[in-house]
Amino acid sequence: MELLDLIAYARRVWRLREEHRWDQPAGFTVLADPDSRRWVALLMRQWDSETGSWQGYCELRCGPGPRPAADWIVPPRQMRGEKWLGIRFGPRTEPKTVYALLDRAMAQLNPAPMSLPRAGELPSPAKAGAKPIPIRGKPGAEPPKVPSGPAELVLEPLPGVELPTLRLSPEAKQEPAASKESAGQTEPAGSALGRLRDSIPEALRQLRKLWDYGRQSPEGRARSFYKQGMQMRDYEDTLPWSGNFVCYYPSYQDLSTRQLRGYFTWRAGVRRGAYKAVPASVAYLYLYELINGIGTDSPADSLARMRAFEKGFLDAGLGDSVMRRYLRQWMLELAVVHNLPPETVRQYADPALLARDEALAALLETKAASDEAVFAALGTLSGKKLEQSPVLAQDPERGRALFCACWRQAAAEYRRDGKKLFQLCFGSRRSRVWHPFSNAVWYQAQVPEDRDCELSPVRRFRCRSGRWQSQCYEPDSFDRSLLRGFLHETERLLRLELKAGRALKPQPEEAWAEPYIRAVIEADRAARAKAARPRVEIDRSGLARIRAEAARTRDSLLVEDADEATGNRGRESGIGNRESGIGNSPARRGGHWPPAAQCIDEATGNRQQATGQGSGIKDQGSGIKDQGSGVKEQSSEDCRVGAQMSAPDAAAGPAPDDGLPLDESQRALLRGLLRGENLAPALARAGLTPALLADAVNEALYDRFGDTVLLCENDTLCPVEDYREELTELLGGVTDA
After folding, report:
1. What is the DSSP letter of 313?
2. How far apart are CA 161 and CA 102, in angstroms?
3. Measured between alpha carbons, how far is 130 from 87 in angstroms, rounded to an integer?
4. How far is CA 61 from the centre of its chain?
5. Can you tell me the distance from the alpha carbon of 587 to that of 192, in angstroms, rounded to the nearest whole number?
6. Cα Rg for the chain, rounded, in angstroms?
7. Calpha distance 86→6 (Å, rounded)
């Protein structure tokens, strides 16, 4: 049994018509009582991908009575309450039981005790004043006359139901008017029906003949509609539309001859740009023609006519929001099915769908996306208004960059159950069977070639062997709570770092995101600290000039040959070798002064150069022999400052073997400084100044301390307090003189 059998029975026996409620989803229709308007049945058609066909399903309001025991009787999925039950239609569905259930449902809505009638008679009320069965018209109306020919009343109620079922023999069934027209039945000449028959255009007669009455499945109805539409694609009429028409999935066969003429008249005006108000079902019939390419030159022409219909009919307030949504959906599907360019396809896609796809692509490929795109995607997919966050109040650019960096860090490193953060939040791209025009009357005249259509980086339509698939991220697999939790923890830590807004309360389930956010915060701190350092610009073009000046300075420090320089200085200063007791010039063998501190000869007052290691010039006595034009050169180890100068508490001699590169005079001066003595007399006797002593000691002890140990300010020496104790220990302690 099929769903259409139940619809035909309800229409023939109970005069119930299948109605489409515009507030219901596509594929849903109802059978409602014509008087009380209460629903008797909810009808659904669903596509079965396994069998490749439409499957019927309905839910009946048959009351709380007993239920048949069958596998095709199932609990209701849409309606709630014990009065409803579900029926799956298929080869094992029993028509007899289904019809009895519908009779039972009508009895619940219109209770009337009945007596058992005789064959050929209608049931009569059991007692006076009882209302008859509302077979047609309003309650209390006279029942229609039984047509001539054999007829019988068959009582087949379920247990507890006393309602008979009217069954007419096949010979007595009345055919609809459309069937009579197509069969060519004639009426007596001069009668009203005869005159009506004569006024029917021949094109409409031929249209009726193209309908395939033996194939009432959705595919069969679509095929018949396509054949009729192509036959009537250029037909026009002059009879204006009048009256009302309500039908779900309308086709030409659902309209009477008068309505057909009115429709073709209205369609001719629409093609010329004149849009008049008609029932919604009539407008849908015109859209079905455009979907099937009836009256158009190409798919692009169909899209152009759809856009014109949207502007002329819907924008003028003649349609509704549901029709506009369906129209946009069909325009997209038409562009995909006919392999139009992707740019054209995107023009008809839902803007909200494209925005979601762009957001998913930005979070999936964060390296290729800008900070603005990633930040906008986080707000779009989470539903949070991140642009109003206090983190962005002081520095919006920095706030956006930190939000994006936190997502990139977590998306790259976080794993749970082998899945990355993006997959945990939005699932994987899934492939589903896609049925274009599933909520319209559409006939696929030929099998399409294999093709792919990229609507966005995360959405694709594929056709293989005539079957379509859509590959995309489905919103029902999104875990928005995980994404919102990550953004809440990010904002909490960023508020603390930037001191923006009030503090947010931490949530235990969001603690997983803290390490990744803190890593971003630390990196931002380091980057800002590095940027705050002063930059030293080196002009490499001036290096040659600097080297030249350094070479001139070096040459100016060079002296003549050691012998010539010593003789000249002796004649100019009048100082003899015997008078000064100095047997040699302090020049190095290389002919220039060594880097050393200056010392003052007590006898002559002339400044001499000594090495940085020296402790004075070794005393050679007054018996140094004159060598003529020069003096015997002494080694740098023997030329030490202060060797002939006596310290207050130490005589010249070898330094103790304690690892300190200091001579005995320097040790004595340091001990005196640590005891707080006045070193001016000792420094004068040693020919040193406070600054020279500080430089020599600091240079000698730098390898050990790595810092300055003596300070010299305004010619006053002072040990650094941090190293006073250690210096005292290294010098063997400090005792009073």
Report:
1. I
2. 12
3. 33
4. 45
5. 145
6. 54
7. 13
Note the pTM of the prediction, 2 decimals.
Answer: 0.50
Alpha helices by DSSP H, 40-157:
95-109
What is the domain partition of the chain in residue ranges?
Answer: 3-172, 177-347, 370-428+473-528, 581-624+631-644, 664-730
The token pair at 319 is 């349609």
- Give the pair of three-digit tokens for residue 512: 């997983």
The pLDDT value recorded for residue 50 is 62
Task: For strands 419-420 and 415-416, give the pairing.
Answer: antiparallel
Provide the 3-class DSSP secondary structure of residue 449. coil
Please state, for a pLDDT cut of 70, what percent of the chain lies above it: 70
The top-scoring range by mean pLDDT among 113-117, 261-265, 596-600, 723-727 is: 261-265
HSE value, Cβ hemisphere, 13 Å, CA-based, for 373: 17
- Cα angle at 101 between 99 and 102, to 5 degrees? 65
Dist. CA 391–CA 387, nearest whole Å: 9
CA atoms of 62 and 281, how far apart (whole Å): 30
Contact between 63 and 104 under an 8 Å Cβ cutoff? The reply is: yes
| Whole-angstrom distance, CA of residue 516 vs CA of residue 177 | 75
What whole-number distance in Å separates Cα of residue 239 and Cα of residue 510? 70
Structure-token match 């003549």, residue found: 560
Give tens-digit pLDDT for 525-560.
999 988 887 766 666 666 677 778 788 887 777 654
- The mean per-residue pLDDT over the stretch 454-463 comes to 92
DSSP 462: E
Task: For residues 562 and 589, give the distance between their C-alpha atoms in angstroms, rounded to a whole number.
Answer: 7
Contact 601, 624 (CB under 8 A): no
Does residue 218 register a pLDDT over 90? no
Q: What is the CATH code of the structural domain delimited by 3-172?
A: 3.90.1150.30
The Cα–Cα gap between 175 and 333 comes to 38
Joined tokens for residue 278 = 């008609």
586-611 per-position pLDDT tens digit: 333 333 334 433 433 433 344 343 33
Whether residue 493 contacts residue 518, with contact meaning beta carbons closer than 8 Å, is answered with yes
Amino acid at 118: R
In 687-707, which positions are buried (b, 16+ CB within 10 angstroms) versus exposed (e)?
A: bbbbebbbbbbbebbeeeeee
Largest CA distance in the chain: 170
CA dist 36 and 110 (Å) reads 10
SS (H, E, C) 646-695: CCCCCCCCCCCCCCCCCCHHHHHHHHHHHHCCCCHHHHHHHCCCHHHHHH
